[in-house]
Description:
This protein has helices at about 30-45, 55-60, 65-70, 95-105, 125-135, 160-170, 195-205, 220-225, 245, 250-260, 280-285, 290-300, 305-320, 325-330; strands at about 1-5, 10, 15, 80, 110-115, 140-145, 175-180, 210-215, 235, 265-270. It is of the alpha/beta class. The strands form 3 sheets. Strands 6-7-8-9-10 form a 5-stranded parallel beta sheet. Strands 3-4-5 form a 3-stranded parallel beta sheet. A two-stranded antiparallel sheet has the order 1-2. α5 runs parallel beside α6 (about 160-170) and α8 (about 220-225) packs parallel to α10 (about 250-260).
Amino acid sequence: MYRTPEGKDIFVVDGHTHFWDGSPENQKNIHGKQFVECFYAYHTALSPKEQLWEKSKFEKYSADDLYRDLFIDGPDDVAIIQSTYLKDFYNNGFNTIERNAEVAKRYPERFIVNGSFDPRDGEKALEYIHYMKETYDIKGVKMYTAEWNGDSKGWKLNDPRAYKCFELCEKLGIKNVHVHKGPTIIPLNKDAFDVHDVDYAATDFQNLNWIVEHCGLPRLDDFCWIAVQETNVYAGLAVALPFIHSRPRYFAEVMAELLFWCGPDKILFGSDYAIWTPRWLVERLWAMELPEDIARERGVELTSEIKEKILGLNAARLYDIDIEAKKKALASSPFSIAAE
């Protein structure tokens, strides 16, 4: 729970977290090394100096680190932990549902585990969706359209094979589709993260919620023009939010655009842990005021009520979280690391 300087408790749902293993021991090839080093470059370039990690910890942190940074030292109440496999780069996968589920098993009230699949796997992808639902009762998935798979260097959301998977997700009640549509990570191809396929999928699957992580950056205009007309498209702030430190006016421009086009009910907080830890992001967002000229030009505001929606209420609505019931359940949640 985040307590504001005014003394108000804010329920925080961190919509974009990870529990990865990018260690040299898990790297299958040079691309695994490049990928995690690119993540680390984002971390060092956009974080305050006092928030920087040693590279060895960044590559592979522990479940205890995860819990402490999110819930003890951090302000999160619930974290949505996303899965990203990258098995062409990592021997055991980068951030698999099995790895994520192990830590969630220790703290079931704290984590929502999302799955992932690759529609290029055909029937095996459909079987895997069934497996994830039956085994973990997932409510959401993370899509990584630039992921490599053999000779293929990416795919599109409107691929007929993808549509078969989304039809199954809809049938099984897996309604939240988080899609990485943002900055590229070496060696992945920038164009494979283009946002235009969101327009097709969101139109054709009205019963699914399309959470566009990183709000399409650096394609913010394209994303906003899609999100304004697709009622089921949402903006995830992961990666965009750290600019509040390194380029605060740029971030204010991004926020004002999202508020103008998407509105305050369709923007979700995400720390992108462990690239960044959530406490400083939440504190700075709560303290932020839009520059007067930016707010006046767009005719928008960033009030405490809007910030509360962004930090938790919007995600709670998408994931059917009963906040009052969750608060009661969390009252007995440990505020120290549980022993194995």
